[in-house]
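[#protein-structures] MJ: dropping Apoptosis-inducing factor 2 here for a structure pass
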Amino acid sequence: MAQTTELVKVVVVGGSFAGIATIQTLLSSIKSGHKNIQIILIEKRDARHHPIGSFRALVDAEFAKRVWVPYTNLFPKDSQHKIIQDTVTQVHHDHVVLASGQIVAFNYLALCTGSDNPAPAKFTVDSSKESMAITSKAREDLQKSKSVVVVGGGACGVELAGEIKNAFPDKKVTLIHSSQTLVDYPGYSSVLKAGALTHLRDLGVDVVLGFRAQIEGLDFQNSIQVASRTIVTPDGKTIESDIQFLSVGIRVNTSYISTLKPANNPSFDSSTLTHADSHQIKVQKTLQVIGFDNIFAAGDCADYSKVPTAAASGSIAPTIANNIIALEVAKSKRKGKPAKLSNPGWMPSVMLLATGPETGVTAMPLIGTKFSNSISKALKSKDLMIGMTNSSMNWK
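AK: finished. structure tokens for Apoptosis-inducing factor 2:
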């Protein structure tokens, strides 16, 4: 890349797995010679949340202190990079507009805004202090309870039920799932799905399949409920609980892209940039938003991965940084040749389910489909990858 005094501004929206992976790859490129890049992270929260550890934080007050990591050390001291704590409300072809009214121009934009899940997996509030208070209150209520119901048998539901049962073995824990199969995601092994069911039952969790539970007062906004509730299944089984957790649904908010139009096409229909059902942004294999060479998207907010996971987001997102560098290199050569862009390639259907510090179920298609607790512990369950997040944030 030609060394010029003009900064190439790369705006990254969202400071979680995809956003931080993009930033770290850009920082490595800057170290190797691309000095004229300025990275601007726009993040609505005051610290980075490590959602992989959310359910351990629910049952372990000491671990809860570790799942919020400051952005303080993300960039080198006195660097030209900066962090803006705000929310993007509008995306245009060369700038974004923030909730505060501030306009931030860019040469390249990486949209890594993630998704929302019911608490305690993730939180709608932007304050780490408020989020920790929600977790603390839920922990106190859980400790007082005698019987627990978890609604939803995806990865989050399985981990939540397992963590609760591991931490409180004397409590009655019931997981209710509408499908006949747990973690029933496309592309994942049936051995994993059957193994997850066997694993939970071995832990002592009562698993009810094929029943769509509707519990009064429990919804996405009120996903942790302390109330006496009785559920009767279609086959006549009675399930009583005094605390309920909703672990169903993933919501993607990409409303900010409704203002995005090509510079020369004001009549462009921005609704074609997202899927009507999932609201995910449509991207090419290069992770470029369809129709925009300088705007990228990755992670839960984009449609590249069939099943959005933290591992997929972190593995895919560096492609954004690599392609930005490739575009800049092509510009500097000025020979009219297109940039050699890459794509993330094939992603194996890896699933690591942690159900406690010593237990879990793991599927790694390149090696095997189901492993013992010891393998799960080594790969994820013990510290839930918090060390990896700390390292990416330059936090010790």
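MJ: nice. The first strand starts at residue 8 and ends at 13.
AK: one more thing. The domain at 128-250+349-392 is CATH 3.50.50.60 (FAD/NAD(P)-binding domain).
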